[in-house]
Design brief:
Blueprint (H helix, E strand, L loop, with lengths): L2 H9 L4 E4 L6 E6 L2 E7 L5 E5 L2 H10 L3 E3 L8 E5 L6 H17 L3 H7 L2
Antiparallel strand pairs: 1-2, 2-3, 3-4, 4-6, 5-6
């Protein structure tokens, strides 16, 4: 997957915006103002994704390309190294999971709007 495919996959989700809140290279995807994915826009060598803490640990044990979130809360974020070993479908599943986890934490009214 390249950066444009990744962007397109994230942006098609309901309520998603993209921005550069930290610097000109760190592309952040948010739903309702809450981050669910971020990556370096130029190098696209890794992606940070929000993850359920128990699932985060399991993924780190199962995949050497999944490590504790770089510059993030290590309990709730994973960094996925894009070495080519993780297929697009699996990465997309993890992005979907991250998005769903963030939506689940939003107020019920907002959740309802996003799930329509």
């Amino acid at each position: 997957m390249d950066i444009e495919s990744f962007r397109a996959f994230c942006l098609v989700k309901k309520g998603v915006t993209e921005e550069f809140p930290f610097d000109e290279q760190t592309l952040v995807f948010k739903v309702a103002g809450k981050m669910f994915a971020l990556t370096h826009v130029d190098s696209f060598e890794s992606v940070n994704l929000k993850c359920d803490p128990d699932q985060a640990e399991l993924l780190r044990e199962q995949y050497q390309e999944v490590i504790p979130g770089y510059h993030m809360n290590k309990k709730h974020w994973n960094t996925v190294l894009l070495t080519g070993s993780i297929g697009d479908k699996l990465l997309q599943k993890w992005v979907d999971d991250s998005y769903a986890l963030v939506v689940k934490g939003l107020p019920k009214k907002l959740q309802s709007e996003l799930n329509q």
